[in-house]
Amino acid sequence: MVGLHKSEFRNPVVRWIDERLPVFTLMDKEYSKFPVPRNLTYMWSFGGMAMVILMTIIITGVFLAMHYIPHTAHAFDSVERIMRDVNYGWLIRYLHSNGASMFFIVVYIHTFRGLYYGSYKHPRELLWILGVLILLLMMATAFMGYVLPWGQMSFWGATVITNLFSAVPFVGESVVTWLWGGFSVDNPTLTRFYSLHYLLPFAIVGVVFLHIVALHITSSNNPLGVEPKGPQDTIPFHPYMTIKDTFALLLFFIFYFVFVFFYPNYLGHPDNYIPADPLVTPAHIVPEWYFLPFYAILRAVPDKLGGVVLMFASILILFVVPWLDTSPVRSMKFRPLARPFFWTFVASCLLLGYCGAMPAEGIWVPLSRVGTAYYFAYFLVVLPLLGKLEKPLPLPTSITERVLGGGPVPAAAAAKPMEKA
Amino acid sequence: MRTPRSILGGLFGAALAAGLAAPVFAAGEAPPPPRQAWSFSGVFGTFDRAAAQRGLLVYKQVCASCHGLTRVAYRNLAAIGFSDDEIRSLAAEITVVDGPNDDGEMFERPGRPSDRFKAPYPNEKAARAANNGAYPVDLSLITKARAGGADYLYALLTGYRDDPPPGVQALEGMHWNEYFPGHWIAMARPLYDDQVEYPDGTKATTEQMAWDVTTFLAWAAQPYLEQQRQIGVRAILFLLVLAGLTYGVKRRVWADLKH
User: ipTM of this model?
Assistant: First the structure.
């Protein structure tokens, strides 16, 4: 029996497997006993939601791939056949296409939560970086997925976005030809996008796995941003977080289903129900809503190369946020000076999103520029300087102390700290 | 009269419309089409079968001479209340080129319920050649492929004016329409009062025909719409109950924690 894992499970079958392949011990350790801070709010439920929605998109995607035909002459028709002739095909497709939007909604909230509570700070830098990598992969996957139905927006969106690479000095034109597999967006482009659209989600699953492994080393951050000092500050993942996350997930699915069943095309563009026509350019080419802020940054710069560089920089800058933010205090709860800057940052992202949906003319151009300027200033000026200038509020000495109502509490409650404890 | 359920749906819809739809219309330099109380709008809406059947008649007698409807099969018409026999005889009105047979010859046969509606032109070039260079689009997805959907289609069909507004120069071969983006549309006004004789005795005004054909085409664009909403209502009710129960369990589980 030397070399077998020492299993604590009593059930003989479970025990037999666990001794040889300790998956039960692993699940028990990582998803049952796993200690998390006791003060996690519903803002910490979005990671789990993102994982469930990712699974939903992958499963529906596998079924769509059984009926979809990646060819410029058949793609649009095959999608329409899925809608009309495949049993519940409309449901599978609407779950998939709206699922992509839901994935972005959840991941954006998850990211803003990380920014607000300083979840990227030591020791969670790599956890954050893996998250940004997931975001980047999601964007590539979603972009290629939108091309597959081969509607007008599919075709022209693909044309506009791939053409951005022509701004690269010297090799730009060659790079674009290489991406297209020809001299325009055509069948070779469609087939390679299809191949990559099927491949990348599994790469996302891989990075998500690493993201979770890294999370289970450091455990979750929490709204106070103070590390748990001992067992009194933590609770086991099961049943506390499992039931809380399940409730949050159900609410989220109600939101998701309102779109799927009653407004399935609201987040899309009507032009994508017109088959792609390389000879007819739509009046306004707009990307999917989740790309609009980045599209606005792209168009805010008068120079093509400059716009492309800034657009990519706006995502890449997230990778180095752990080193741009110089404040030792994680949670913005204790950074009253940083809070208005954070909310202005959220507002600038929303403003950029709105500008991205409008034509690049009139008032929308200067507004895009203001939004872009603030977006970068937040990371490059505000976060580095604030850490050195601001005076944060006193931190609670432990989570339990704060949760159970004692200890130093900021602002109004600070008057009567010690008597109650 | 609007029913409470459609008001509820309308509220959510209006909230959504305030978000992203506005920029779409702003781009088209035509007024947004007025909202209509369609039988199929709202959470519990269904297609008015009689209107859809009249709409098929309008499509066949007016639209079909230029516009295809090639994603709809005759068998699909059962969904708007046609009987098997009616479908069979409707399908038999067309001639389909089939084959090759065992001798390698193509042959003609009458249409069957499994056949799809036949396009009026063999290809886009032929369609353009016959229509002064303009392409009469296939109507299978028309209400999904235009901002404003059914409201827009109805507004377009009833939005023709004999003369452009004062001060606007007339365009040769084009027609002025209140709701078409840019106002000048190649399609001539298609509907005139009493153009179609309805078997059920409904008076065929321009508005009535536009209403009926829009109902029919809205069905043709998403024949699964009724099933979609039925499942949606059940799925969301189920989730609401389950979420309520889960919240109760969550309260029980967390009750033993001091916080």
Answer: 0.90
